[in-house]
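Request: Could I get any protein with tokenized structure?
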Amino acid sequence: MNACDPALAAARRVTLLDTAVASTNLGDQIIMEAVRAGLRDVLAGTFVTSVASHDRLGPKGRALIRNADVAIAGGSNLISSRMWFRSVWKLGLRDAFLSMNTVLMGIGWYQFQNKPDPYSRWLLRRVLHPTALHSVRDSHAKAMLAGIGIVNVVNTGCPTLWDLANPARPPLPTCKAAEVVTTVNTYIKDPAADRRMLEILKARYGTVYAWIQTAEDGAYLRELAQGIEIIEPSLAAYDELLTSARDLDYVGNRLHGGIRAMQKGRRAIIVAIDNRAQEMGRDFALPIVARTNFERLEAMIAGPLEIAVRPPLGDIAAWKAALARTIHGPAAGD
């Protein structure tokens, strides 16, 4: 497009809060890929820039936010009851006066926590768009926001789920595969439970592969078990394994490791270790099992296992239409 084109001059400006930048978790790359795919139609004709959500805003980032019509926070567990302490979303006091007009897209709550403290309530109400429709990824996050008076919210699930109900997708396998890829999670360790999970996988599958989603996972895995084939710690290497001709299941502790496997057509069992998998599993029929329910895990592995993830397509469509109106004006979402 020519720089003198009136369409370019009139383009609305949107800044994405990129949760994959400055993140130590490769799962955030999976999330941001889905965020950009989910926004593709809505953001057609807009001028889009990005800043990091996981790092403090500098002068350039603040300028991008200030000049944007809307900021969109994409995925991840960005919101906390204590936004001043170990918060994933690195907001400072001065950011509250930036007129951020942030719209949430599939955001989760940091953990199961008590109600937000006064500073966090004030900060969230300052940085979130006051009238736009926000999207969260589970019922818990929606209830927590409602508790501080933010009720213009729909539960759409994480954007990584949105395409799993696409009728063009073939059904996921129901029967056990010959091999398995796993993940462990050093964020919430339980060595006894994780060791038992790996023992089950080694007994039930011919080959056990492991994908390392954070740098610390590899050393933890080696402490737990031997005889596991660790693949290169990159999303590209994980995708290569998932799209290979191998007869492969996924069974592991990482939520988005399991979601990625389903995106690539693999049978998956997500071993739930925190609020994210528990809440999304309950809301959208993810194939989850409690960390210490080994009898249930063995039964799910043996199969047959029917997987039919149910993202709320009506709420997703309503959120997209509302976002289009917020960005482009009332007629855009009609």
Observations:
- DSSP finds twelve helices and twelve strands in the chain.
- Residues 321 and 333 are 4 Å apart (CA to CA).
- Residues 313-328 form the longest helix (16 residues).
